Amino acid sequence: xxxxxxxxxxxxxxxxxxxxxxxxxxxxxxxxxxxxxxxxxxxxxxxxxxxxxxxxxxxxxxxxxxxxxxxxxxxxxxxxxxxxxxxxxxxxxxxxxxxxxxxxxxxxxxxxxxxxxxxxxxxxxxxxxxxxxxxxxxxxxxxxxxxxxxxxxxxxxxxxxxxxxxxxxxxxxxx
Length: 175
Prior knowledge:
GO molecular function: DNA binding; sigma factor activity
Organism: Actinosynnema pretiosum
Protein name: SigE family RNA polymerase sigma factor
Keywords: DNA-binding, Sigma factor, Transcription, Transcription regulation
CATH topology of the largest domain: Rna Polymerase Sigma Factor, Chain: A
Number of strands: 0
CATH class of the largest domain: Mainly Alpha
Strand content: under 5%
Pfam family, one: Sigma70_r2
CATH architecture of the largest domain: Orthogonal Bundle
């Protein structure tokens, strides 16, 4: 790889590492695993960086590589035995009402706990659609499926998320 390509990759990696890590965290629910996924994704991107045709849309390609890397990791049997207990990142909001802060944290934790119970492909669709705010067409490209599949997985994922949140909330209220 030439110096110009090397510098272009470094610039891209510096700009996108944080976003890739946050998306990976939403996929897997653990910051350490998210860091590993982000690094594996950047390594794969580095190895393919010489291909010029996708660089105009490098962010979309990076999300696709991240998604594939996460799905590959989930398929490994030794990963299934581990349970992660991560936390969603805190986001400072100067305009936030302090009286509602506890409720917001509780709701955030409740949704995150429910999200981790949603099947992987449905979770990926929900993360890309609602947390990454991607349109259906871009999610379809990232996941390698049709837009209709994205829409149906979104609907099923929302049903699964709703049920999971209600189950988690029921346990929290009962205890």
